[in-house]
Amino acid sequence: MDADYGGVADAFGRNFDALGEIGAQVAVFHRGRLVVDLAAGTDPVGQRPFTRETLMMVASCTKGATATCVLMLADAGAVDLDEPVATYWPEFGQAGKADIPLRWVLAHQAGLPYPDPDAGLSGLDQLAGPKLVGQLERQAPWWTPGTAFAYHPITSGAMLGEVVRRVTGQTLGTWFAEHVARPLGLDFWIGLPPELDDRVAPGVWPENRDAWVQELATPEPPADTYAARRRAAIARLPAMGPDPDDAASLRAYYGIEVPAAHGITNARSLARMYAALLDDIDGIRLLSPDMVLRATTPQTDGLPALIESGTAGPDIRFGLGYQLASPGMPGLGPASFGHTGAGGRLGIADPDLDVAFAYVGNSMRDIGPGGDPRWATLLDAVRRAV
């Protein structure tokens, strides 16, 4: 670790002493150089240390990787963000969706936040695969697209992934591996090879309840509202993570390509991906400066927000696929962008400071309206060090 970043190590230690951290990693790049790469604690499920090489399924932090893939294709001229999704995926144009541009999917304005709860999908078919794709083709939007936004926790990745498949002939996980992870030397997969299952540490939720279950414990919303429809959809979703005692469940969750939620990585690789959005990393820069500027231009400011909770708090803001700085995703400053992940994971970049930051931990917490207090201690220390 760079000597100037000793305060980050101190803050990392305080998260264990004062905030009940179990196992965690933090990584920071400054001006393209790795200056912090720390890990500590334990994986109590696997009964082993939590190291810098430990992998975790990072939930919606995966959306940052998926957005990066789509924006790289836009940078290369393979897709136009203002073109209708149906240009690339004609079957999507059914049920009033013919004119939804790709940018509205990136910015959670498409009106398809969940598969309809009465669609008959079950289990992992609600997260990925041809049954979900077919349902999204047939499904009518839940509101007039472009007039409001609401977080699309799973379907955003399914739609973007299908566009990538139609344009490139590769699944999003395969395209990400070929064009992002391998060139940068990342330990980051969207669809994990089976021989790596043992490297993954499960998340530890309070009382063994994941985020979907916790949301369903909240008061019943009024009937015939977006909140009620959303709650009915969530009630059908499978658990957010696998059964850690069931090898088949682990393989199913880790191996399936869910571009919005099932990315598996560590803090060093998540931060390195974001660093490559800002700087040349070993000769590789993923996006042009112009595309970074376009991607971080607010898309949802001023639009009505259909309120979400958990990872996507009421103040959530979006550019093109990336969350923008807000109280719930505080970042390092107003220019920060990236994505949170349910349970308290975070990956961001800050163009003003030329910093990329990632935090991955196994002590799962709800992300409150002010973000996660574990992030606050670390981000404050990074600001002081830069």
Question: What distance separates the N and C termini?
Answer: 14 Å
Mean pLDDT: 94
Q: Helix count?
A: 13
Helix content: 25-40%
Radius of gyration: 19 Å
Q: Give the CATH superfamily.
A: DD-peptidase/beta-lactamase superfamily
What is the ordering of alpha helices and beta strands?
Answer: HEEEEHHHHHHEHHHEHHEEEEH
Descriptive notes:
With 386 residues, this protein is α+β, with helices and mostly antiparallel strands. The protein has one domain: Beta-lactamase (3-Layer(aba) Sandwich). The protein has a seven-stranded antiparallel sheet with strand order 3-2-1-10-9-8-7, sandwiched between helices. The protein has a three-stranded antiparallel sheet with strand order 4-6-5. The longest helix has 14 residues. The model has no long low-confidence stretch (mean pLDDT 94).
